[in-house]
Amino acid sequence: MPFENRVDPFGAIIRTAARGTMMGNRGGALHNDHREIVRPYKSRQWIACVLEFKGRHRTVMTPNRYTELFFLDEAVAFAAGHRPCAECRRERFRAFQEAWGRPARAPEIDRELHAARLDSRKRKLTFKARMNSLPDGVFVRIDAGAWLVWDDSLFLWSPERYVRKDRRPDRLEVTVLTPEPIVRCFRNGYQPETHDSVRQL
To answer: Would strands 83-84 and 47-49 be described as parallel, antiparallel, or unpaired?
Structure first.
C-alpha cells in the first residue's frame, strides 16, 4: 500500500501510488512509528524541495524525522501553501523573496503564509475572485475539481498528471485555492514550475 504522503491542491495529504516531481515538508514529523499521518503540520515552515540534493539519501517516514511530502509540481505545492526551500532551491527562494513585494526573511514569510493557509479550525482558507484577475499558476476550485490557471486555459489536476484542458472563462467568479500572498507573488513575476502534462494537452 502506498504511503499517505502526497499533497493535493486543497492542501490535503492523500494516499496514492502516483509519484510527484517535488518533495517538501511541514516543519517536522507528521507521522507516527507506524508511518501513519497523525497531524496536518508541525510548524509554520511549509517548504517545497527538489527530489535530489547533494547525494543525500533518506528512508521515507523514518520515525522521529520530518515527514517527506510529495507534489505533482510546484504550482500544486504553492496551492497547498508551501514556499521554495531556502537551502536546496536557493535561487527560487530568492526569486520568491523578490516577488514578495517587500524585504522579508523566511520566518516572516512563513508567518504571513500560515495566516493565509488555514483558519482557526485548521481548515484551508480560500477567497473569491474573477478568473480574469488571476495570474498564471494559480489553482481554482470549480465544482469539486482543482484547476490550474495557465494562459487562456484551465488544466484539471489529478495525482498522476493534468488530465483535461478547457478554455478559461474570464468572467467567471471562482474560489481560489492558492493563498493570497502567493497569488501576489505570481502577479509580481514569479512563475511556478508545472508538470510536463500541461504542455502535452
So the answer is: parallel
Q: Which residues are CB-neighbours of 136 under 8 A, at least 6 positions away?
A: 149, 150, 151, 186, 191
Give the pTM.
Answer: 0.96
Residue that the C-alpha cell 495570474 belongs to = 135
Spatial CA neighbour of 10 closest among 85, 71, 76, 84: 76
Q: Domain-by-domain residue ranges, the chain?
A: 4-117, 127-199
| Residue located via cell numbers 488530465 | 163
Could you list the pLDDT tens digit for every one of the 201 residues in the chain?
899 999 999 999 999 999 899 999 999 999 999 999 999 999 999 999 999 988 778 889 999 899 999 999 999 999 999 999 999 999 999 999 999 999 999 999 999 999 999 999 999 999 999 999 999 999 999 999 999 999 999 999 999 999 999 999 988 999 999 999 999 999 999 999 999 999 999
Q: What is the C-alpha end-to-end distance of the chain, expressed in Å? A: 30
